[in-house]
Amino acid sequence: MENSVALENKVSGASRFIIVITTVTAAIMELLDTTIVNVALNQMAGSLGATIEDIAWVITSYAIANVIIIPMTGFLGEYFGRKNYYLGSMVLFGIASYLCGNSSGLWELVFWRFVQGIGGGALLSTSQAILFDAFPGKERGMASGLFGMGIVLGPTLGPTLGGYIVDNYTWGDIFFINVPICILATILTILYIPKKADEGKHRDKIKIDYLGIALLMLGIGSLQYVLEKGESKDWFQSVEISVMSLLAVVGMVGFVGRELNTDHPVVNLRVFGNRNFAFSSIFVLVSGFGLFTSVFVYPVLVQRINGFTPYETGLSLLFPTLTILPLFPILGRRMSAGASPIPFVTAGIIIFAIFGFYSGTATTDMGRWDFYSMQLMRGLGTVLLQLPLINASVAGLKPNEFGAGISLTNMIRQLGGAFGIALANNYVAQQYAQHRSDLVSNYVPSNPLFIERFNAIKMSFLARTGDAVHATTQAYRQLELLLDRQAYYLAYLDTFRIISIFFICVLPLVVLLRTKKKSAAEAAAAAKAAADAH
């Protein structure tokens, strides 16, 4: 606390303004990179010779890196010193961004996206802690509001900015734009962000749980591989999938055992002993699944099926989110005033469930504004879930457990997103095969609708080329493309509906959540922990 007071006394006026600009920009940049690639997946897949299913690794590798690094940022900041760690992460993020843009192969890009995610995870959590310390106690509500706006704007601006760049330049430029921002933020950090009085001076007392880190990486990485590749490799009929599944079990079981039996765990899993935290984590996992999966499937749907450009896709996400943006600081003030998060969580789950079924009614001829109400519901559900779930998670924890609880909450959300994208890929592939099989049964000469459609397409080609054989071949090819398009369209709609089913399944568990009114001291401790742990 003394260190925070000392920092408050050092920071004022123009310096505080620059710290706000630096930290909020860094946070927006990190969050923007979680969604900026979503609208470029088709272009990246074509350029790198990859399938949409494989290109999803570009998203999930970044998310997995975040999952690994987020719970470690606290002790890494203590070990290296918060300012040094922040600077190092900024430089790492910038270098990895440059190398992502220059990647010539899928797995090269996936590797550098993972490295980018290692740097990005620190930018988000450490930015919040630095911003929090730059404001005195009475003004920290405003600091939280500023940072909250950044948290919402980052993922919102990603698809729009990415779409504009892809439409007018190349997909590599979506990574290159990070480089000048990182350079500027690095210079401002060196000049204006102060160090804590004891920053980096307790390195000798900090013990790093290297085995825990290794087991976490082994377990999460292997499980993600199984989820991504299981469908295409026929699951446990494949030796490769069987071996990776075994490694996932060994990694996760070993990680849990290690963290519960060491005096210096990298992730404090003992907080799961609190019933409220354990049940809240289920909602956090599902909210991450719904948020990331819906933002992954939607751009692919509207570009593949509805013919949107990447920029149009981004705009269709931007305007609904801007509509609900003012709700974020209002909700933040309600949470700070001690309001129970349970009604907000319940409303968010219901709205997200309705959003999934509503999105499952989308048609192939819908334009950008036709999706406005659907995406408005997604944004509203997201706002009502994110901050209240953090409050619900820590409601039953002791003040000294807030940091571990909030850190784990953010890790679980990212984990839900990474797994959600992998499961969505598998589900789309499975449903596509089923719908294609169902649809192809109608492609028979005895079906008058098929004959009518075939003859119309054939006559169209014949009128242009005058070659009957070529016209017949092209008509069959065109019908094959239409068959694929319709099968994928139905598969994407099914994926939105499965999101709703997940939320409906967890809704009854809301009755198991408990909250209590926090004292002023507990509210202050929770706010500080949120800043330090993100």
TrEMBL record:
Instruction: Write out the annotated subcellular location.
Output: Cell membrane
Domain of life from the UniProt record? Bacteria
User: Sorted alphabetically, which InterPro entries does this protein's record hold?
Assistant: EmrB-like, MFS, MFS_dom, MFS_trans_sf
List residues traversing the bilayer: 17-40, 55-77, 84-104, 110-131, 143-162, 174-194, 206-227, 239-257, 277-301, 313-332, 344-361, 489-513
Asked if the keyword Transport belongs to this entry, the reply reads: yes
Q: Show where the Major facilitator superfamily (MFS) profile domain sits.
A: 19-518
Pfam families for this protein: MFS_1 (PF07690)
Which keywords does this Swiss-Prot/TrEMBL entry list? Cell membrane, Membrane, Transmembrane, Transmembrane helix, Transport
Q: How does it sit in the membrane?
A: Multi-pass membrane protein
Where is it predominantly found?
membrane
Listed name of the protein: DHA2 family efflux MFS transporter permease subunit
Q: Which organism is it from?
A: Emticicia soli
